[in-house]
Structure formats: structure tokens, C-alpha cells
Amino acid sequence: MNAASGALIWHYAPSNIATFLNYGIVANRGVTYCDGTLFLLTLDMTIVALDPATGAQLARVPISRAVPGAQSNYGYSETSAGECADGRLIVGAAGSEYGARGFVMAYEVPSLAPAWANPFWTVPPNDTEWRRDARIVGGGVIWTTPTVDLTTGMLYIGTGAATPPYYPSLRPGSDPRADSLIAIDLATGRMDWWQQLLPYNEWSYDASQPPLVYTARIGGRRVRVVSIATMEGVWFAFNAVTGAPIWQRVKVLDNVEHPNLQPGVPVVVYPSSLGGLNYSPASYDPETEYVYNAASETASVLVQQTSVEEERQALLAGDVFLGLANGDYGQYLASGWHDYGSISAIDVATGKVVWKIDTPQPERGGPTTTASGLGFDGGGDGVLRAFNARTGQVLWSFQTGYQIADGPTVYAVNGVEFVAIGVGGTATSSNGGTQASQIQVFALGGSSAQAAPPTITTNAPRAVYAPRAAHAPAAAAAAAAAGGAGRVSGPAGLVVSAWDANSSNTEPVAGRVTLGGQPVVGAVVRVDGWVDPSPTDAAGAFSYPLDDTTPARHVATVVADNDATVAGRRLSAAQRAALLGASGGISVGYQISGLSARVDGAGDVVVSGRLSVGSQAPPTVLLYSYLLRGVVTGPGGAPVAGAVITTRTNDRQYWTQSRPSGADGAYASFLVAADQEGDNPVPMEVGVAVGGTAYSLPAADEVNFAKLQSDVLNIQLPAAAGATLTPAAISPQPIPGGIYQGLLVGVVGGNGGVIRPLSASWPDSSGRFRLVLPAAARGLTVKFWQDNRQFFSATAAAAGGPVNLADYPSTLPADAPQDLATLSLPH
After folding, report:
1. Which of 321, 322, 135 is nearest to 738 (CA)?
2. Is 425 exposed, middle or buried (0-12, 13-18, 19+ CB in 10 A)?
3. Of 68, 468, 617, 690, which residue is least crowded by CB atoms under 10 Å?
4. Which of 225, 197, 213 is nearest to 349 (CA)?
């Protein structure tokens, strides 16, 4: 929009906008302007690059391209803006409720190539450490915009709660790095320090306020400070460089009382799970040296689920288990308590609250302060207020007519100063207020006509990075002409290590680039999507910071060789062609020990061994989810391509989107028919999106799915675009089976080909596995590989049980770790 007149200049909507209509969360908290490009993060986990002058889409890149598993069907969603700093776009993602694993990742601008070799993961890998007891254990997400300080070169992130939020017995202990403030080196993505703000959290309080970084006078000297207030309702300040505490647990709320929850027993907590200090940012005034917070002074009654209710849950991905028996955020107090809001100022020099004013409704948006000594804040009562930053006195107010859950923006155009505020609330504001989506803008001399206040009832609910690929025939011809082929090799014997909360969980490993067996100096290597900024050295070596907590094979490729030399001589054209695109891999896998092989009575070879992570066994095969598949057709029965099917539980707790249907109309998706009410069958909403057109059931209708089963669901679209679906035509048919996840172990022979076993077992709870290889393998020297894969099986897969050989790969995926151990088979 024109910032002075409000005239609309352009409007952008993603091409698949209709899919978002069926999401359970439909928040978007802003865009990011970065080095001449505008970036939007979409609910379905993509980064959209836009021309800020025209709104034209320049690129749309899946976040999962650089962050494995960062997809909406794994529980992730993007609801906030990214951060721009030093030519990088930094993003996290929401998803704690679904056991998603928190991360933050940096991308180069404008290419959107990974700026770091690995995402920074806040909590351990799935099914390990304190996440071992159930697939739904996770969290620690960065769902609000992180903060960068170019003075220290640091990125500061606040992390969300561990999940399930109200049931800590599934995640015993302090849940390291959940509910924490973490400092990360902006250039490398490596952790510098961390401080946990709330260990053992059972009230669903996040550290979600964007951290605030500034220089203040403390104890007579200037100190670089990072501070943050939490949903618990307390404020912390740390030395931004060292992480040393300055002030801890300063009360921002009047009431901060949250006793331990008890199964089946009502417990009153202050604040409610909504906060406290939620996503609303704070502000710092260097004149007063005060930090300003806008808070929600709330309360609720929480009833923890009993163990019987827990056991009823399947505890698999998507079967949302919050651990709360009485709704998402509990119930309101019957005592006459009324939620309200407050704005307060903390003197950073003393760590004391110097003034505090109450507002009629909870504050959700955060204050903005100015050099003139004025502060601005919008409340849940629809009032925009200007206050004296030194005293808190309200100097001016304006009734916008709708709940406010946004922070004010102050800007100037041609010497005229404006204050802008988004109004319309959110689903969790005072009575919501989401019927409006407006920006109201104010200036001196503007209209003084105010709106009627909102009706609020007491205690009511609330340019894409394109990798260069070598053409195989040309590369082969060039290699022959050059007298040798280019080769990228990685170190052997790398094994998975246990996750360490006090580490970045990466280790530098060296790979090597050779041409005809000789080291190549000056070659540029890309590992996965990240490009090593340092060309290969005199030994042909490059360095890669390997995440050694999960098994994987990281593909390393030569992407540039303009300045490369071999034996001190610049490469010829033929040598360059032979080298460019040469690739190899850096593999890390679970430790393989106790290998043995024998010939059985049938003449086949029985191979056995054990996998481990230190002294522990790796995660076993487990039921991950259920399958929904079917065919989408048009009104005449012709297949519809590009259709996305959304299923959402009636309690709005979990939703999945299918892959777009193919040319034959076929689609497939995860499905979890389970809700907090324990229904069977489970009522679910079904929606179909084709581009910008959404099809949904009538508001009063839903589809009943058999609890925790896979289904076939064929859908015929109505004749009119966007018309309602016919409930009678949507009848899911249960089918046996589910989607499992497990670690396959196998071997390749001397020619590098996979030797398909006659039978195989999944590793058991101790990590032991077994393969029966055909007699033709006798006398071979074989090398072991591992492949963590998801697959549909009509029969249950169990630890130590047989592998369905139909799921066994005939060729190895590029990301499957290889060459992990060697064994000579008997003759």
C-alpha cells in the first residue's frame, strides 16, 4: 500500500491459497524485506520471494530443501515472519503441539541457498534422549521471529515448550533447550551459549517473545544486554556476549502462580497457557533505559489427563495428546476472576519494575516507543493508547472498534509521521474479533471520529538456488580425454553420537577432491545444498561441519573449478569437464559391531550384528501414521490433477494435506483419525483444493472415519467451481495397515550393487539385526549400509520382526549412509 495515502498498489496470494482455508491455524504475522527482496513464509512451509515494487513472485522454495522433514504433514507450519541480517534470511517454524522438532535455519539472499551447512536443531532427534518414550514428544520450536545483533554477530532465539505440554511424565527431566534463550553464531549456525528459562514445564509456557538486544548502563558500565519475557510472566536479562545472568525471574504479572498439575484434579494457574507474555515484542528506550512489556494477566483451571486416558492414545505422529482433560487451554475460573492486561516498564539498571498500568483486556500486540518519549500500544479492548514512556501516564487514546493483537509501527513519509496498527484480533484475543482485518493509520490532524468499542463478554473463550549438474555422457568423455575421472570422497567410519545439549552437535570432517587420483587445489564443493566457502587446499581437502546425531549420507559435489589446479597446473578444458559435477558422499551411521557370518544348511549366508549409539540401541521400527489414498475425479468422472485433499479432526487439533493428485487423479496422504474426545468413529472435516479453488463440506456435515485405521477415500468434485461437496459421495473405506518408520540394514557387493536378502529382520530393542543372503554371495567382501525409511505395510512391523522384502530397495537412495562396515563372507 502507499504508506501516505493507503491506496492499494498490488496484492499477492500463493497459487495454492485454497489449501490454507482448511488449515487449523491460519495466522500470518508479517513479511520480511531483505536486501531488495520481500519474503513471505507460507503455512505449507515454503519461502516466497516477491518483487516489492510489483508483487511478482520471483521464487518459491520449500524449507524442507535445506531442513529435512520440515513439511506441514510432519506437524510444521509457518505463522510468523523471518528475520533479515547480513545478507541472510533466518526462519524457524511452529509445530510444538505435534511433537515437531524445533529448528532455525539461515538462507542466502536472494538465491535462498543454505547459508549454514546444517539447521540448528533445538532438541534431540526423534525417538532419542528425552524424546524416547513416544513419537509425540518434542517441541522447542522457534515460532516467532528471531533476533539478530550485528554488534555481537549473534542470533538470539527463544524456544517453545516441550510436548506433550501438560504431561511431563512422557518427557521426564528438564527437557534441555526447550523454554530457553539460545545464542547462535550468525555466520556458522553454531551455538555459543544457552540458558533454560523454565525447566520441567507442565503449563505450556513458551519463551516466545522475540529477544531484545541493546546496550544499557549496569553497575556503572555499559553492557550489551539480551532480555526476554516469557509466557510464564517473568523477565530475564543476560550478558549478550557471554550469556551470564544479569537479572532473573523479574515478575511482569501481578499473579505468577502455577502449582504442579494433578491427574483428574482441577488446578488453578496464573497465567493461563496463553500467557503471560506471548508473541508480543518488548521495546527498549535508550533515554529512560527502561524495557517496556505489554502483558496478558490471565488465569485458568487445568485438569491433567489420567494415565487411563493416556494409555488410550496411540501416541504416534498426529494423534495429538496434550495431556489436558478439559480443553486446549483449560477452563475459566468460576470465582469471578476477569482477565485483564497491563503495560509496564523495567529499569534495566536495577531490574525493578518502575511503573505498571492495567488495561481492561489482555494485551497481545506489544508496545512501540519513540525518541520523543512517547510509547504506543494497542489493547484487546480495541483501544490504541499513547503513553509517557517515563511515567506510564496515558496521554491519548483512540477506539478502533476491534480487538488489537498487533504491535504499532511508527514511520514518516515526506516529513509527516504516522502510527499504523493492525486491528481485528486473533482467535485467542478477547472474544476473538477476527471479523475485521484492517490496518488503521494515524497522523496529527487526522480524523478524531472513533468507532464503537468491540463487544466483549466476560470469560468468553479466545531466484531459486539451482544446483549445477554435469551431463553424464559429456563428463565421461571428458574424463577419458583428461586421463582420469574426478572423484569426491569422504572419511570412512563415522558413527552417530548421542545428542548433547551443551553442543552444536556438529563435528568438522574432511572430504577430498581428486582428479585421476591426484589432489585438486581450488575446487569449490557443495554438500547437500550448502557451498563450502573455502576451496580445496593443497591436499584436495574441504571441510564440512557434520551433524553426527542422525544417520545420513550427505552428497558432496564439485560445483566450480575455474581456479583449480592439479600438480601446480591450471586445469585444461577436458580436465574441468571431467571434474565439474563429480560427486561422492559423507556417510554417518549407527555403530555396527559384533558382525558374524555363517553358511546355513541351505547353503545361504546368515549375517548378524548389532547397531548402537554409544551404549544405547537406536530407535526401533514403529508405527508412524496411517494412510489415506484415493482418486479425485471431476463431475463427468475424468481424473483431476493437482488436487490437494485436507483432512482435519473435528477438534481442529491435527490436519494433513495430501500430495497433489497426479494425472490419473490419484493422491496419498497421512491420516490420523483420533481426537481428544476419544471418538470412534472419529468425525473429521474433508476439504479439496485445486489451485485457488476450495471445495468443502456443508458447515454442519463431517465425515466419520474408523478410529486409527487407514482408508481409501475417492472424491468426485461438483460441477460448479467452489461448490460444496456432497456428503453422501464421501464415504471412506477402511483398509488394513499403517505407515511405519524403521531402519533397514543391508549390504552391497564388490560391484556396489545391493544384494537383496532372502530374509531380513528389523533391529530389535537391543539393536541386533539379521540378514539371510543368497548362496551366490558366498566368498564376497560386502559393505554395509543403513536406510531410515517410511513405508506402508498391511501387516504390523515390529522390532526384531521380519522385514517385508517388497520394501527392500533394489538400489540405494542417495541419502542412505553407505560403507559403514566391511565383512568377508564365508565360502
Report:
1. 135
2. buried
3. 468
4. 225
Residue whose grid cell is 564388490 = 750
Kindly report, residue by residue over 407-417, the tens digit of the pLDDT. 999 999 999 99
Number of H helices, E strands in the chain: 4, 58
187 and 153 Cβ atoms separated by less than 8 Å: yes
Q: Are 649 and 682 in contact (CB under 8 A)?
A: yes
Q: How confident is the model at residue 312 (pLDDT cuts 50, 70, 90)?
A: low
Burial-class residue 436 by CB neighbours within 10 Å (0-12, 13-18, 19+).
middle
Query: How far apart are the C-alpha atoms of 335 and 713, rounded to whole Å?
Result: 48
In 10 A of CB 183, how many CB atoms? 23
Mean residue pLDDT of the chain comes to 91
Burial (Cβ within 10 Å: 0-12, 13-18, ≥19) of residue 678: exposed
Residue 343 near residue 392 (C-beta atoms within 8 A): yes
Buried (b) or exposed (e) across 579-599, using 16+ Cβ within 10 A?
Answer: bbbbbbbbbbbbbbeeeebee
The closest of 557, 595, 537 to 820, measured between CA atoms, is 595
**Is the pLDDT assigned to residue 380 strictly greater than 50?**
yes
Which of 744, 740, 813, 741 has the alpha carbon at shortest distance from 784? 744
SS3 of 52-121: the string is CCCCCEEEEEEHHHCCCCCCHHHCCECCCCCEEECCEEEECEECHHHCCECEEEEEECCCCCECCCCCEE
- CA–CA separation, 322 and 325 (whole Å): 8
Answer whether 120's CB lies under 8 Å from 545's CB.
no
Half-sphere exposure in the Cβ direction for 403 (13 Å, CA): 23
What's the sign of the alpha-carbon dihedral 696, 698, 702, 703?
negative
**What ranges make up the beta strands (E) of 221-362?**
221-229, 234-239, 245-251, 266-269, 283-285, 290-297, 300-303, 340-347, 352-359
Q: Which three cell numbers stand for residue 69?
A: 522433514
Cis peptide before 545 (omega within 30 of 0): no
Query: Residue 639 corresponds to which cell in the numbers above?
Result: 481424473
The strand order across the sheet containing 394-399 reads 368-369, 374-378, 383-388, 394-399
Prediction pTM value: 0.93
Grid coordinates representing 536 are 580445496
Report the 10 Å Cβ neighbour count for 519: 18
CA separation, residue 236 to residues 7, 230, 341, 604 (Å): 42, 8, 20, 65
CA distance 361 to 172: 36
